Amino acid sequence: MALVGMVILLILASVSILATWISPYSPIKTSLVEMLDRPSTAHPMGTDELGRDLFTRILHGGRVSLAVGFLAVALAVSIGSTVGAVAGFYGGWVDNVLMRLVDFMIALPSIFVLILLATIYGTNPVTLVLVIGGLRWMGTARQVRGAFLSLREREFVEAARCLGASPSRIILRHLLPNAIGPIIVASTLGISGAILTESSLSYLGLGIQPPMASWGNMLRNAQDQMVRAPWTAVFPGLMIFLTVIAVNSIGDGLRDALDPRKVEER
Amino acid sequence: MTRYLARRIAQAVPLLLLMTLFVFVLLRATPGGPLSMYEADPTVTGEDLARLRAQMGLDQPVPLQYLQWLGAMLSGDWGWSLVTKRPVTVMILERLPNTLVLMSVTFAVTLAIAIPIAIVSAVRQYSWFDHVATTIAFAGNSLPTFWIGLMLIMIFAVGLHWLPAGGMYTLGEPYSLGDRLKYLILPVTTLAIFDATHYIRYLRSSLLDVIRQDYIRVAYAKGLDGTTVLRRHALRNAAIPLVTVIAIDLPQLFSGALITETIFAWPGMGRLFWEASGRVDYPVLMGIFTVASTLVIASNLLADVAYAWLDPRIRYR
Q1: Comparing C-alpha atoms, which of B215, B255, B247 is closest to residue B233?
Q2: Do B138 and A109 touch (CB under 8 A)?
Q3: Nearest CA of chain A to the CA of B142: how many Å?
């Protein structure tokens, strides 16, 4: 399953990156004579309400959706690991303050904050990455902290300390590599969440703005054409579904492989 | 139990205050601020703007503004919408029940679907039922909510004309429960598909963990039948992590509800928030955010109580 997911994701990523070379059409240029054409050999997924080739827009939209998803998670995992590592390693009041911050962030109704931030700071791919990443790091922080709390009591950490290793060296060389399993699993599963968040925001009109294509904002336009041109609503959604299910199966596979508690279940 | 509860409530209040402060500062930091609407209007002079700023207290430092807002809020004055010029409390009270109806019906339907499926799936692990259920749950968990909604509208409203595509009741018709239910089916299905698949996965794996425990074997060994073991020993313990997940998920439920309300033109709080954000209607945004945060914190409290009820170890600590 995980392998199938990996292959699907690689295919999706490469066709998105190579979009300009794969499709002869422009994702933005409109064509009045080809409005809402049914899927055909010239346009395998049909055209949208402005006569743009849907397949081309899906490829270009994939670029945006995948890039925003991956980068947002990269940001979230960096913040989460740092916060979790510092809290778990130092403990005491540092831990207390950081974990209350995590509690606070988790309790925030994030969709409202997302909408506010998107309204206030505008909507381009970069701010979208910052906003989504900035609101999705708490799970990683908790996990890393938990792993650190038990790891720091182990003998090899004590040994490193006796040898005079600095806190940063202990964290980076001894603790983090041992806690990497849950981080990898959380970040993989985080990618699908981030992609879903991006597409939801774009669907609400608060994410990627037209004419730039993203799977979410394509669905926003499709809602008005659904009666005459169902394909405009079906294909972008299928792409989100395919991507998310691919990422999720990779994540599940990684969890089974990396979590020792799961071994006995198989 | 009372002391435990009192401590949880004492922790919840500062959290709520912090959350409102956070959003208050966020809104004040907006370029243009609450007056951006008037600034764009050429008939409003600089003098008028200064007067409005003083009138609304915007010339004062932000901490002071927050305290004033908090005081007014506590005494029931939630301000007036900048767009509709109606009291925020009235606007929210019109919408809140609709959101609560949508969310609670969804929640009930979700649990009614998820719990039996998860139990059968876990008890008969690796049966054909388990395989089908886990596959569907896995796929359903990867579907974007709004796309489920769009597809349901396309099939059942536009294609088959069985159900209405949006709204809450048929205009001009007298109130009837059947009519209301008809409008609930699609939005509730949309939300329940996503939530149920999530809970099935969770409850199944937590049941599988519990079933392997020694005390379950003991229960069987002393001659209890399968149903009793499941009901008295396995389910009760498997429910503990589920309660936490449900509580943690509640903010996510809001997000699902907001998107679903937008798709189905459901006149709820989420849709109101979305509309207000487009018009930068500060008092409304602030009011809805406060209500939503209160609901989230209250439900977390409720989860803590349920948690303590299910697991005596927590109660007596």
Answers
A1: B215
A2: no
A3: 5
pLDDT in tens, A149-206: 888 888 888 888 888 888 888 888 888 888 888 788 888 888 988 998 888 888 888 8
d(CA B219, CA A135): 45
Q: Taking CB atoms and an 8 Å limit, are A116 and B297 in contact across chains? A: no
What pLDDT is recorded for position A21? 79
Residue whose structure tokens are 């609450």: B34
| Cα angle for residues A73, B251, B156 (degrees, 5° grid) | 95
* pLDDT tens column, A38-97: 777 777 777 777 767 778 888 888 888 899 999 999 999 999 999 999 998 888 899 989
**Interface predicted TM-score (ipTM) of this complex, two decimals:** 0.82
Distance from CA of B144 to the nearest CA of A (A): 6
A219·B147 Cβ contact <8 A: yes
B296–A107: do the CB atoms touch at under 8 Å?
Answer: yes
Residue B223, min C-alpha distance to chain A (Å)? 26
Residues 222-241 of A with CB under 8 A from B: 222-223, 226-227, 230, 233-234, 237, 240-241
Question: Do the beta carbons of residue B12 and residue B301 sit within 8 Å?
Answer: yes
- Distance of alpha carbon A9 from its chain centroid, rounded? 13
Distance CA A239, CA B10 (A): 47
Helix (H) or strand (E) run with residue B157 in it? none
Mutate to test the interface with B, among A116, A192, A220, A231 (most CBs of B within 10 A): A116
- Residue B87: strand, helix, or coil: strand
Task: Give the SS3 label for residue B171.
Answer: coil
In 3-state terms, what secondary structure has residue B126? coil
Mutate to test the interface with A, among B130, B131, B146 (most CBs of A within 10 A): B146
CA torsion sign, B118 to B119 to B125 to B131? negative
Question: pLDDT by residue (tens digit) across B185-234?
Answer: 889 998 898 888 888 888 888 888 888 888 888 888 888 888 888 887 88
Which pLDDT does position A82 carry in this prediction?
A: 92
Mean pLDDT calculated for residue range B281-305: 84
The neighbouring-strand residues paired with A53 are A47
Which residues partner with B80 through β-bridges?
B87
d(CA A99, CA B47): 47
Range B176-196 burial, b when 16+ CB lie within 10 A, else e: eeeeeeebbbbbbbbbbbbbb
Structure tokens at A148: 């650190």
Q: Quickly list DSSP for A42-72.
A: SSTT-B-TTS-BHHHHHHHHHHHHHHHHHHH
Compare A123 and B66 and report the one with higher pLDDT.
Answer: B66
pLDDT of residue A72: 93
